[in-house]
Amino acid sequence: MRGDNKMNIILYGTGKRFRSFIDCKFYAEALKRHDYHVVGVYDKAKAGERVTVGNGSFVVGTQADCVQGASDCIAITSDKYFDEIAGELTALGVARERLIKLSEIETELEDDVYTFQRFDGRYGIEIGGPSHCFAEIYRRCRGCDDVNFSADTVWWKKKENVYRGGTRTLGKVFIADAVDLSMIADAKYDFVLSSNNLEHIANPLKAVAEFVRILKPGGYLVIVVPFKEKTFDHRRPYTAFEHLLEDYKRDIGEDDLTHLPEIAALHDYEMDPPCGGRENFLRRSKENFKNRCLHQHVFSEETLRGIYDYFQVEVLSFACLGANLVCVGERAAKSMI
């Protein structure tokens, strides 16, 4: 990448990855901050067609536009087929150094939120996972342990007593509930990560209390939760911080199904094909303590900031990144935990 220099980019591919990138307000604003400009779009199956994404519209260029166009780089949207596509383009005369993965651009832009260098050489722990959004942290950190509530979840299965991020062995695995990490010493880790996990917890403040307890003073807490407008929760109201605090004081257990009637009534089943429809959703939800599939709460920026403030974790950055809200904070030198 070119750092602070202006860069003109042609995007290769108009599939799901392209659409999520173009439709993300954060990426659009970050491109402007970095002086990066999308000057063309190419897809060999759609040359000449108009592609509309959100409020934007693009005419897909020809192969000649892609190969000979005045761009600094061609960003290939597919990581899986990058080598194959790169081979085709270099055979047409495109210099190899002009070809990059779109994911590399995304990582550079996301540094505006994460400031990835703060994780260099640090040792942390993830609650849930592994998570694609933390790939760059996995790459940079010294190591990372993991906590999952079961050795066999809908999202992950324990095959050995090591935690892996991609092909890298990161650390060990604890099988424990996020609300009770008593097997882990106070102030043990440099960072705590949690992605698309907190919404599944009936008593989120009890869990975050544990996250902060095992975090060193000056350590980093990164919480990623779904942005409801992009998910099957879009009809549900946000959970107020005051509600979470009441649940915390009442010591609500993880077997709680108080919110199930509201969730079932407002869940968008068409956006959630894996749930198998309303009846199957209800059957699965009644076994939620075993599977933890239910989104117990819906988080807004205000609610997340309230959680960080309550536990004296300073919010360093906040962003709506695609279908997720990302909050990065630093634990105070002296905290209430």
From TrEMBL:
Keywords for the protein's UniProt record, in alphabetical order: Methyltransferase, Transferase
Domain Methyltransferase type: start-end pairs: 166-223
Annotated GO biological process: methylation
Pfam families assigned to the protein according to its UniProt record, in alphabetical order: Methyltransf_11
InterPro entries: Methyltransf_11 (IPR013216), SAM-dependent_MTases_sf (IPR029063)
Single annotated GO MF: S-adenosylmethionine-dependent methyltransferase activity
Top-level lineage group: Bacteria
Protein name: Class I SAM-dependent methyltransferase
Organism: Selenomonas montiformis
Lineage: Bacteria, Bacillati, Bacillota, Negativicutes, Selenomonadales
